[in-house]
Protein backbone atom coordinates (compact mmCIF):
# COMPACT_ATOMS: atom_id res chain seq x y z
CA UNK A 1 0.00 0.00 0.00
CA UNK A 2 1.02 3.65 -0.05
CA UNK A 3 1.34 3.75 3.74
CA UNK A 4 4.25 5.67 5.18
CA UNK A 5 6.11 5.46 8.47
CA UNK A 6 6.34 8.14 11.14
CA UNK A 7 7.95 8.06 14.58
CA UNK A 8 6.17 9.78 17.45
CA UNK A 9 8.32 10.63 20.46
CA UNK A 10 6.10 11.18 23.51
CA UNK A 11 7.81 12.08 26.79
CA UNK A 12 5.68 11.87 29.92
CA UNK A 13 6.49 12.64 33.53
CA UNK A 14 7.07 8.97 34.42
CA UNK A 15 8.04 7.40 31.11
CA UNK A 16 9.00 8.22 27.56
CA UNK A 17 8.05 6.21 24.49
CA UNK A 18 8.71 6.06 20.81
CA UNK A 19 5.82 4.83 18.71
CA UNK A 20 5.93 3.83 15.07
CA UNK A 21 2.91 5.09 13.17
CA UNK A 22 1.79 3.85 9.79
CA UNK A 23 -0.43 6.27 7.95
CA UNK A 24 -1.97 6.54 4.51
CA UNK A 25 -5.31 7.40 2.96
CA UNK A 26 -7.92 5.71 5.18
CA UNK A 27 -5.18 3.97 7.15
CA UNK A 28 -3.70 4.58 10.59
CA UNK A 29 -1.97 2.26 13.03
CA UNK A 30 0.49 2.64 15.85
CA UNK A 31 3.01 0.29 17.50
CA UNK A 32 5.07 0.99 20.59
CA UNK A 33 8.71 0.29 19.73
CA UNK A 34 10.49 1.57 22.83
CA UNK A 35 9.52 2.66 26.33
CA UNK A 36 11.94 3.97 28.94
CA UNK A 37 11.56 5.33 32.47
CA UNK A 38 11.75 9.02 33.25
CA UNK A 39 13.33 9.28 36.69
CA UNK A 40 13.86 12.79 38.07
CA UNK A 41 17.03 13.34 40.08
CA UNK A 42 17.53 15.62 43.07
CA UNK A 43 20.95 17.21 43.58
CA UNK A 44 21.15 19.42 46.62
CA UNK A 45 17.75 21.01 46.99
CA UNK A 46 16.91 21.00 43.29
CA UNK A 47 14.78 18.45 41.45
CA UNK A 48 15.95 17.93 37.83
CA UNK A 49 14.92 16.06 34.73
CA UNK A 50 17.56 13.58 33.60
CA UNK A 51 17.46 15.02 30.11
CA UNK A 52 20.38 13.05 28.65
CA UNK A 53 18.84 9.76 29.79
CA UNK A 54 15.66 10.83 28.05
CA UNK A 55 17.57 11.77 24.90
CA UNK A 56 19.29 8.39 24.91
CA UNK A 57 15.83 6.79 25.14
CA UNK A 58 14.77 8.85 22.12
CA UNK A 59 17.81 7.72 20.08
CA UNK A 60 17.29 4.07 21.05
CA UNK A 61 13.63 4.37 20.11
CA UNK A 62 14.36 5.97 16.74
CA UNK A 63 16.84 3.19 15.94
CA UNK A 64 14.20 0.59 16.78
CA UNK A 65 11.53 2.46 14.78
CA UNK A 66 13.87 2.41 11.77
CA UNK A 67 14.42 -1.32 12.13
CA UNK A 68 10.70 -1.95 11.98
CA UNK A 69 9.89 0.46 9.13
CA UNK A 70 9.51 -0.80 5.56
CA UNK A 71 11.94 -0.49 3.91
CA UNK A 72 14.14 -0.72 7.01
CA UNK A 73 15.94 2.47 8.02
CA UNK A 74 13.50 4.79 6.26
CA UNK A 75 11.26 7.11 8.28
CA UNK A 76 9.05 9.68 6.59
CA UNK A 77 9.03 11.89 9.63
CA UNK A 78 9.62 12.37 13.35
CA UNK A 79 7.51 14.42 15.76
CA UNK A 80 8.23 15.17 19.41
CA UNK A 81 5.88 16.01 22.25
CA UNK A 82 6.39 16.19 26.01
CA UNK A 83 5.05 17.67 29.21
CA UNK A 84 4.71 21.43 29.09
CA UNK A 85 6.21 24.43 30.86
CA UNK A 86 9.84 23.30 31.42
CA UNK A 87 12.91 24.31 29.45
CA UNK A 88 16.66 24.12 29.05
CA UNK A 89 19.01 27.09 28.71
CA UNK A 90 21.81 27.17 26.11
CA UNK A 91 24.99 29.21 26.30
CA UNK A 92 26.52 31.20 23.43
CA UNK A 93 28.07 28.02 22.01
CA UNK A 94 24.73 26.22 21.99
CA UNK A 95 25.65 23.98 24.95
CA UNK A 96 23.09 23.09 27.59
CA UNK A 97 23.55 25.01 30.86
CA UNK A 98 22.69 22.54 33.60
CA UNK A 99 19.91 19.99 33.72
CA UNK A 100 16.41 21.35 33.20
CA UNK A 101 14.61 21.89 36.51
CA UNK A 102 11.48 19.83 37.21
CA UNK A 103 8.21 21.75 37.48
CA UNK A 104 7.61 20.08 40.85
CA UNK A 105 10.73 21.74 42.26
CA UNK A 106 10.06 24.25 45.03
CA UNK A 107 12.02 27.16 43.54
CA UNK A 108 8.91 28.99 42.31
CA UNK A 109 7.53 29.58 45.79
CA UNK A 110 6.68 33.24 46.21
CA UNK A 111 7.22 34.03 42.52
CA UNK A 112 3.54 34.55 41.76
CA UNK A 113 3.54 37.37 44.32
CA UNK A 114 6.61 38.88 42.73
CA UNK A 115 4.92 38.72 39.32
CA UNK A 116 1.74 40.24 40.75
CA UNK A 117 3.71 43.22 42.03
CA UNK A 118 4.84 43.92 38.46
CA UNK A 119 1.63 43.00 36.67
CA UNK A 120 -1.79 42.56 38.33
CA UNK A 121 -3.07 38.96 38.00
CA UNK A 122 -6.24 40.25 36.32
CA UNK A 123 -4.17 41.81 33.57
CA UNK A 124 -1.85 38.80 33.22
CA UNK A 125 -4.91 36.59 32.71
CA UNK A 126 -6.64 38.97 30.32
CA UNK A 127 -3.48 38.94 28.16
CA UNK A 128 -2.57 35.24 28.32
CA UNK A 129 -5.60 33.27 29.56
CA UNK A 130 -3.32 30.90 31.47
CA UNK A 131 -4.48 29.43 34.79
CA UNK A 132 -2.39 30.10 37.83
CA UNK A 133 -0.14 27.12 38.52
CA UNK A 134 2.87 27.70 40.78
CA UNK A 135 5.22 26.30 38.14
CA UNK A 136 4.20 28.34 35.10
CA UNK A 137 7.27 29.17 33.02
CA UNK A 138 7.16 32.86 33.87
CA UNK A 139 7.43 32.03 37.58
CA UNK A 140 10.30 29.65 36.86
CA UNK A 141 12.06 32.42 34.93
CA UNK A 142 11.59 34.87 37.77
CA UNK A 143 13.12 32.28 40.12
CA UNK A 144 16.04 31.62 37.75
CA UNK A 145 16.88 35.11 36.62
CA UNK A 146 19.29 36.07 39.41
CA UNK A 147 21.51 33.02 38.90
CA UNK A 148 24.78 32.51 37.03
CA UNK A 149 23.31 30.02 34.56
CA UNK A 150 20.63 32.45 33.56
CA UNK A 151 23.21 35.21 33.09
CA UNK A 152 25.13 32.94 30.68
CA UNK A 153 22.01 31.89 28.79
CA UNK A 154 21.60 33.02 25.18
CA UNK A 155 18.71 30.79 24.28
CA UNK A 156 15.80 29.06 25.96
CA UNK A 157 14.34 25.88 24.49
CA UNK A 158 11.20 24.15 25.78
CA UNK A 159 11.77 20.42 26.36
CA UNK A 160 10.49 19.08 22.99
CA UNK A 161 12.25 21.93 21.18
CA UNK A 162 15.49 21.02 22.98
CA UNK A 163 15.22 17.39 21.82
CA UNK A 164 14.45 18.61 18.27
CA UNK A 165 17.48 20.91 18.45
CA UNK A 166 19.79 18.05 19.38
CA UNK A 167 18.36 15.92 16.57
CA UNK A 168 18.51 18.60 13.86
CA UNK A 169 20.75 21.46 14.98
CA UNK A 170 17.83 23.82 14.35
CA UNK A 171 16.09 25.84 17.02
CA UNK A 172 12.46 26.88 17.17
CA UNK A 173 9.67 27.42 19.68
CA UNK A 174 6.60 25.35 18.97
CA UNK A 175 3.41 27.32 19.54
CA UNK A 176 1.15 24.94 21.49
CA UNK A 177 3.79 24.40 24.14
CA UNK A 178 4.76 28.10 24.08
CA UNK A 179 1.17 28.86 25.08
CA UNK A 180 1.86 27.25 28.47
CA UNK A 181 4.69 29.67 29.22
CA UNK A 182 2.19 32.44 30.03
CA UNK A 183 3.93 34.64 27.46
CA UNK A 184 1.55 34.04 24.53
CA UNK A 185 -1.60 36.02 23.73
CA UNK A 186 -4.20 33.38 22.76
CA UNK A 187 -6.11 35.88 20.61
CA UNK A 188 -3.19 36.67 18.31
CA UNK A 189 -1.46 33.30 18.90
CA UNK A 190 1.79 35.23 19.14
CA UNK A 191 4.06 36.51 21.92
CA UNK A 192 2.57 38.98 24.38
CA UNK A 193 5.10 41.79 24.38
CA UNK A 194 3.27 43.72 27.12
CA UNK A 195 3.48 40.77 29.51
CA UNK A 196 7.13 40.08 28.73
CA UNK A 197 7.99 43.75 29.20
CA UNK A 198 6.11 44.06 32.49
CA UNK A 199 7.80 40.94 33.91
CA UNK A 200 11.23 41.82 32.56
CA UNK A 201 11.50 38.69 30.40
CA UNK A 202 13.60 38.99 27.25
CA UNK A 203 11.68 37.36 24.39
CA UNK A 204 14.89 37.26 22.34
CA UNK A 205 15.80 34.16 24.40
CA UNK A 206 13.12 32.26 22.52
CA UNK A 207 13.87 31.17 18.95
CA UNK A 208 11.12 31.96 16.40
CA UNK A 209 7.69 30.38 16.78
CA UNK A 210 6.71 27.45 14.63
CA UNK A 211 3.29 25.90 14.33
CA UNK A 212 2.16 22.26 14.28
CA UNK A 213 2.85 20.99 10.77
CA UNK A 214 5.80 23.32 10.16
CA UNK A 215 9.14 21.77 9.16
CA UNK A 216 11.62 21.61 12.06
CA UNK A 217 14.77 20.47 10.25
CA UNK A 218 16.34 17.16 9.28
CA UNK A 219 18.30 14.65 11.33
CA UNK A 220 21.98 15.59 11.60
CA UNK A 221 24.54 13.22 10.03
CA UNK A 222 25.75 12.15 13.50
CA UNK A 223 22.18 11.27 14.48
CA UNK A 224 21.67 9.27 11.27
CA UNK A 225 24.88 7.38 12.02
CA UNK A 226 23.87 6.69 15.60
CA UNK A 227 20.33 5.55 14.81
CA UNK A 228 21.09 3.67 11.58
CA UNK A 229 18.45 5.69 9.75
CA UNK A 230 18.74 6.63 6.08
CA UNK A 231 18.62 10.36 5.39
CA UNK A 232 17.03 12.65 4.78
CA UNK A 233 14.65 12.25 7.73
CA UNK A 234 12.49 15.32 8.32
CA UNK A 235 11.50 16.39 11.83
CA UNK A 236 8.10 18.07 11.85
CA UNK A 237 6.63 20.35 14.49
CA UNK A 238 3.55 18.71 16.00
CA UNK A 239 1.41 19.78 18.92
CA UNK A 240 4.60 19.52 21.00
CA UNK A 241 2.68 20.02 24.24
CA UNK A 242 1.61 16.42 24.99
CA UNK A 243 -1.88 17.58 25.92
CA UNK A 244 -2.23 19.34 22.53
CA UNK A 245 -1.33 16.11 20.75
CA UNK A 246 -3.57 14.06 23.08
CA UNK A 247 -6.59 16.22 22.32
CA UNK A 248 -5.82 16.11 18.58
CA UNK A 249 -5.91 12.34 19.18
CA UNK A 250 -9.41 12.32 20.71
CA UNK A 251 -11.72 10.18 18.52
CA UNK A 252 -14.45 12.82 18.53
CA UNK A 253 -17.60 12.26 16.49
CA UNK A 254 -18.04 14.49 13.46
CA UNK A 255 -19.73 17.67 14.64
CA UNK A 256 -18.05 17.71 18.06
CA UNK A 257 -15.10 20.05 18.47
CA UNK A 258 -14.01 23.63 17.86
CA UNK A 259 -16.50 25.33 15.58
CA UNK A 260 -18.84 22.30 15.51
CA UNK A 261 -22.41 22.29 16.86
CA UNK A 262 -21.60 19.71 19.56
CA UNK A 263 -19.34 20.21 22.56
CA UNK A 264 -16.14 18.19 22.63
CA UNK A 265 -15.45 17.35 26.28
CA UNK A 266 -12.31 15.39 27.11
CA UNK A 267 -10.17 14.30 30.00
CA UNK A 268 -6.54 13.67 29.11
CA UNK A 269 -5.41 11.42 31.93
CA UNK A 270 -1.99 10.39 33.07
CA UNK A 271 0.17 11.93 35.74
CA UNK A 272 -2.30 14.81 35.37
CA UNK A 273 -5.98 14.89 34.50
CA UNK A 274 -6.55 17.70 32.04
CA UNK A 275 -10.31 18.16 31.87
CA UNK A 276 -12.02 20.59 29.57
CA UNK A 277 -13.46 21.53 26.21
CA UNK A 278 -12.13 22.22 22.75
CA UNK A 279 -13.12 25.71 21.64
CA UNK A 280 -12.45 27.93 18.64
CA UNK A 281 -11.74 31.00 20.77
CA UNK A 282 -10.28 31.75 24.20
CA UNK A 283 -12.41 32.64 27.24
CA UNK A 284 -10.61 35.42 29.09
CA UNK A 285 -13.17 36.97 31.44
CA UNK A 286 -12.72 37.62 35.13
CA UNK A 287 -15.06 34.78 36.09
CA UNK A 288 -12.91 32.38 34.12
CA UNK A 289 -9.79 33.66 35.85
CA UNK A 290 -11.32 33.18 39.27
CA UNK A 291 -12.34 29.64 38.32
CA UNK A 292 -8.68 29.16 37.26
CA UNK A 293 -9.36 27.85 33.76
CA UNK A 294 -6.61 27.92 31.18
CA UNK A 295 -6.67 28.61 27.45
CA UNK A 296 -3.95 26.47 25.90
CA UNK A 297 -3.44 26.56 22.15
CA UNK A 298 -4.13 23.47 20.09
CA UNK A 299 -3.54 22.31 16.55
CA UNK A 300 -5.45 23.92 13.68
CA UNK A 301 -6.33 27.11 15.54
CA UNK A 302 -8.11 25.39 18.42
CA UNK A 303 -8.13 26.36 22.09
CA UNK A 304 -8.11 23.90 24.99
CA UNK A 305 -10.22 25.41 27.72
CA UNK A 306 -9.37 23.26 30.73
CA UNK A 307 -8.20 22.98 34.28
CA UNK A 308 -5.33 20.87 35.66
CA UNK A 309 -6.38 18.19 38.13
CA UNK A 310 -3.74 16.26 40.08
CA UNK A 311 -4.53 13.04 38.21
CA UNK A 312 -2.97 9.63 38.76
CA UNK A 313 0.00 11.33 40.40
CA UNK A 314 -1.97 10.98 43.65
CA UNK A 315 -2.22 7.22 43.20
CA UNK A 316 1.36 6.80 41.94
CA UNK A 317 2.74 8.74 44.90
CA UNK A 318 0.71 6.61 47.34
CA UNK A 319 2.05 3.44 45.72
CA UNK A 320 5.60 4.80 45.87
CA UNK A 321 5.19 5.47 49.60
CA UNK A 322 3.75 2.01 50.26
CA UNK A 323 6.47 0.29 48.26
CA UNK A 324 9.15 2.22 50.17
CA UNK A 325 7.57 1.02 53.43
CA UNK A 326 7.65 -2.57 52.20
CA UNK A 327 3.86 -2.75 51.89
CA UNK A 328 1.88 -4.17 48.94
CA UNK A 329 1.78 -1.60 46.16
CA UNK A 330 0.85 -3.55 43.05
CA UNK A 331 -1.71 -1.68 40.99
CA UNK A 332 -4.24 -4.37 40.02
CA UNK A 333 -4.95 -5.77 43.52
CA UNK A 334 -5.22 -2.22 44.88
CA UNK A 335 -7.76 -1.28 42.22
CA UNK A 336 -9.76 -4.46 42.84
CA UNK A 337 -9.84 -3.69 46.57
CA UNK A 338 -10.81 -0.07 45.89
CA UNK A 339 -13.69 -1.22 43.68
CA UNK A 340 -15.10 -3.06 46.70
CA UNK A 341 -14.56 -0.20 49.16
CA UNK A 342 -17.36 2.08 50.35
CA UNK A 343 -18.05 4.74 47.68
CA UNK A 344 -17.54 8.44 48.46
CA UNK A 345 -16.69 7.83 52.10
CA UNK A 346 -14.31 10.79 51.96
CA UNK A 347 -13.07 12.99 49.14
CA UNK A 348 -10.27 15.52 48.77
CA UNK A 349 -9.90 18.47 46.40
CA UNK A 350 -7.93 16.88 43.55
CA UNK A 351 -7.53 20.32 41.99
CA UNK A 352 -5.54 21.64 44.92
CA UNK A 353 -1.85 22.54 44.55
CA UNK A 354 -1.30 21.19 48.09
CA UNK A 355 -0.71 17.80 46.42
CA UNK A 356 1.85 19.07 43.90
CA UNK A 357 5.10 18.25 45.65
CA UNK A 358 6.30 14.65 45.96
CA UNK A 359 6.33 12.69 49.22
CA UNK A 360 4.16 11.31 52.05
CA UNK A 361 1.03 11.23 49.91
CA UNK A 362 -1.12 8.84 52.00
CA UNK A 363 -0.54 11.01 55.08
CA UNK A 364 -1.32 14.21 53.18
CA UNK A 365 -4.55 12.73 51.85
CA UNK A 366 -5.56 11.60 55.35
CA UNK A 367 -4.78 15.07 56.71
CA UNK A 368 -6.94 16.70 54.03
CA UNK A 369 -9.84 14.39 54.97
CA UNK A 370 -9.43 15.27 58.64
CA UNK A 371 -9.29 18.97 57.91
CA UNK A 372 -12.56 18.85 55.98
CA UNK A 373 -14.33 16.91 58.72
CA UNK A 374 -14.39 13.57 56.90
CA UNK A 375 -13.24 10.15 58.06
CA UNK A 376 -9.64 9.25 57.26
CA UNK A 377 -9.11 6.25 54.99
CA UNK A 378 -8.34 3.25 57.21
CA UNK A 379 -6.29 1.23 54.74
CA UNK A 380 -4.78 1.24 51.28
CA UNK A 381 -8.05 0.18 49.62
CA UNK A 382 -9.89 3.13 51.17
CA UNK A 383 -7.07 5.49 50.25
CA UNK A 384 -7.17 4.38 46.62
CA UNK A 385 -10.96 4.66 46.61
CA UNK A 386 -10.68 8.17 48.05
CA UNK A 387 -8.23 9.13 45.28
CA UNK A 388 -10.40 7.75 42.47
CA UNK A 389 -13.64 9.19 43.87
CA UNK A 390 -11.87 12.53 44.29
CA UNK A 391 -10.58 12.49 40.70
CA UNK A 392 -14.03 11.60 39.33
CA UNK A 393 -15.56 14.39 41.41
CA UNK A 394 -13.00 16.89 40.11
CA UNK A 395 -13.72 15.72 36.55
CA UNK A 396 -17.44 16.34 37.11
CA UNK A 397 -16.97 19.75 38.64
CA UNK A 398 -14.42 20.92 36.07
CA UNK A 399 -16.42 19.88 33.02
CA UNK A 400 -19.63 21.40 34.40
CA UNK A 401 -17.87 24.70 35.09
CA UNK A 402 -16.17 24.71 31.69
CA UNK A 403 -19.51 24.21 29.94
CA UNK A 404 -21.05 27.05 31.92
CA UNK A 405 -18.16 29.51 31.53
CA UNK A 406 -17.74 28.83 27.82
CA UNK A 407 -21.55 28.90 27.33
CA UNK A 408 -21.50 25.62 25.38
CA UNK A 409 -24.27 23.02 25.14
CA UNK A 410 -24.02 20.01 27.45
CA UNK A 411 -21.76 17.41 25.78
CA UNK A 412 -23.26 14.09 24.69
CA UNK A 413 -20.26 12.14 25.86
CA UNK A 414 -16.98 12.58 27.71
CA UNK A 415 -13.81 11.30 26.05
CA UNK A 416 -11.12 9.88 28.30
CA UNK A 417 -7.72 9.46 26.62
CA UNK A 418 -4.22 8.78 27.93
CA UNK A 419 -2.88 6.31 30.48
CA UNK A 420 -5.97 6.55 32.71
CA UNK A 421 -7.94 4.72 30.02
CA UNK A 422 -6.47 1.51 31.44
CA UNK A 423 -8.03 2.29 34.82
CA UNK A 424 -11.57 1.03 34.21
CA UNK A 425 -12.76 1.97 37.68
CA UNK A 426 -11.70 5.59 37.16
CA UNK A 427 -13.50 5.69 33.80
CA UNK A 428 -16.71 4.24 35.28
CA UNK A 429 -16.64 6.59 38.30
CA UNK A 430 -16.12 9.51 35.92
CA UNK A 431 -19.18 8.46 33.90
CA UNK A 432 -21.20 8.17 37.12
CA UNK A 433 -19.99 11.50 38.50
CA UNK A 434 -20.59 13.39 35.25
CA UNK A 435 -23.88 11.62 34.55
CA UNK A 436 -22.64 11.17 30.98
CA UNK A 437 -21.45 8.24 28.90
CA UNK A 438 -17.67 7.95 28.74
CA UNK A 439 -15.79 6.88 25.63
CA UNK A 440 -12.44 5.54 26.82
CA UNK A 441 -9.48 5.43 24.43
CA UNK A 442 -7.03 5.62 22.94
CA UNK A 443 -4.50 5.34 25.77
CA UNK A 444 -1.83 6.57 23.36
CA UNK A 445 -3.82 9.56 22.13
CA UNK A 446 -0.79 11.87 22.29
CA UNK A 447 1.20 9.63 19.96
CA UNK A 448 -1.79 9.36 17.60
CA UNK A 449 -2.22 13.14 17.54
CA UNK A 450 1.51 13.50 16.98
CA UNK A 451 1.52 11.07 14.03
CA UNK A 452 -1.60 12.55 12.42
CA UNK A 453 -0.16 16.05 12.30
CA UNK A 454 3.12 14.84 10.79
CA UNK A 455 1.40 12.54 8.34
CA UNK A 456 -0.75 15.38 7.10
CA UNK A 457 2.25 17.69 6.74
CA UNK A 458 3.96 14.97 4.67
CA UNK A 459 0.88 14.54 2.48
CA UNK A 460 0.24 10.95 3.61
CA UNK A 461 -3.24 11.83 4.89
CA UNK A 462 -5.39 14.90 4.37
CA UNK A 463 -8.24 16.74 6.00
CA UNK A 464 -9.12 19.01 8.87
CA UNK A 465 -9.08 17.92 12.49
CA UNK A 466 -12.50 16.25 12.14
CA UNK A 467 -11.26 14.22 9.17
CA UNK A 468 -8.07 13.20 10.95
CA UNK A 469 -10.07 12.15 14.00
CA UNK A 470 -12.27 10.04 11.77
CA UNK A 471 -9.22 7.83 11.12
CA UNK A 472 -8.85 7.28 14.87
CA UNK A 473 -12.21 5.65 15.38
CA UNK A 474 -11.15 2.61 13.40
CA UNK A 475 -7.51 2.58 14.53
CA UNK A 476 -8.17 1.50 18.11
CA UNK A 477 -10.86 -0.35 20.03
CA UNK A 478 -12.71 2.10 22.29
CA UNK A 479 -14.52 1.19 25.50
CA UNK A 480 -17.85 2.65 26.53
CA UNK A 481 -19.02 3.30 30.09
CA UNK A 482 -22.66 4.15 30.76
CA UNK A 483 -23.30 6.18 33.91
CA UNK A 484 -25.16 4.43 36.72
CA UNK A 485 -28.48 6.29 36.84
CA UNK A 486 -29.76 7.94 40.02
CA UNK A 487 -26.32 8.42 41.51
CA UNK A 488 -26.31 12.15 40.76
CA UNK A 489 -27.35 13.12 44.28
CA UNK A 490 -24.44 11.20 45.85
CA UNK A 491 -21.92 13.15 43.82
CA UNK A 492 -23.74 16.41 44.48
CA UNK A 493 -23.57 15.74 48.21
CA UNK A 494 -19.87 14.90 48.04
CA UNK A 495 -19.27 18.11 46.11
CA UNK A 496 -21.10 20.13 48.77
CA UNK A 497 -19.08 18.48 51.51
CA UNK A 498 -15.91 19.70 49.86
CA UNK A 499 -16.78 22.98 48.21
CA UNK A 500 -19.85 24.15 50.16
C1 LIG B 1 0.81 16.87 31.08
C2 LIG B 1 1.28 18.30 31.11
C3 LIG B 1 0.16 19.25 31.47
C4 LIG B 1 0.95 20.38 32.07
C5 LIG B 1 1.96 19.62 32.90
C6 LIG B 1 3.17 20.37 33.27
O1 LIG B 1 1.84 16.00 30.78
O2 LIG B 1 1.85 18.68 29.89
O3 LIG B 1 -0.64 19.64 30.38
O4 LIG B 1 0.17 21.29 32.77
O5 LIG B 1 2.25 18.46 32.13
TrEMBL record:
Residues 479-500 are annotated as: Disordered. Keywords: ATP-binding, Disulfide bond, Kinase, Nucleotide-binding, Rhamnose metabolism, Transferase. GO terms for biological process: glycerol metabolic process; rhamnose catabolic process. Gene3D superfamilies: 3.30.420.40. InterPro entries: ATPase_NBD, FGGY_C, FGGY_N, Rhamnulokinase. Residues 265-458 form the Carbohydrate kinase FGGY C-terminal domain. Residues 8-248 form the Carbohydrate kinase FGGY N-terminal domain. CDD domains: ASKHA_NBD_FGGY_RhaB-like. GO terms for molecular function: ATP binding; glycerol kinase activity; rhamnulokinase activity. It comes from the Bacteria. The keyword Cell membrane does not apply. The keyword Transport does not apply. One of its GO terms (cellular component) is cytosol. Belongs to the FGGY kinase family. This is Rhamnulokinase. It comes from Streptomyces aidingensis. The lineage of its organism: Bacteria, Bacillati, Actinomycetota, Actinomycetes, Kitasatosporales.
Amino acid sequence: SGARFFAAVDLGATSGRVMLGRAGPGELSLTEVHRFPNRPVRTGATLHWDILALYRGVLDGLREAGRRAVPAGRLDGIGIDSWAVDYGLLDADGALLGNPVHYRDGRTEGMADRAAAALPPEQLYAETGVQHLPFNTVYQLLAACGGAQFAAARRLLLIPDLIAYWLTGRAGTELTNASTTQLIDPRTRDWSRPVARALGIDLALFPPLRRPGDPAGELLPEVLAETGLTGPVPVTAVGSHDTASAVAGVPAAAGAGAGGPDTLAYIATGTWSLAGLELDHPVLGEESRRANFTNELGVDGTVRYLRNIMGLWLLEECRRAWAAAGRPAELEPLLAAAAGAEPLRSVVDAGSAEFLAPGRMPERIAAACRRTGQPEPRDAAETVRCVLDSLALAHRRTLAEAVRLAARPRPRTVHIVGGGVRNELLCQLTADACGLPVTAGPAEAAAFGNVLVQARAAGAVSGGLAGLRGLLRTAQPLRHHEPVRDHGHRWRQAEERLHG
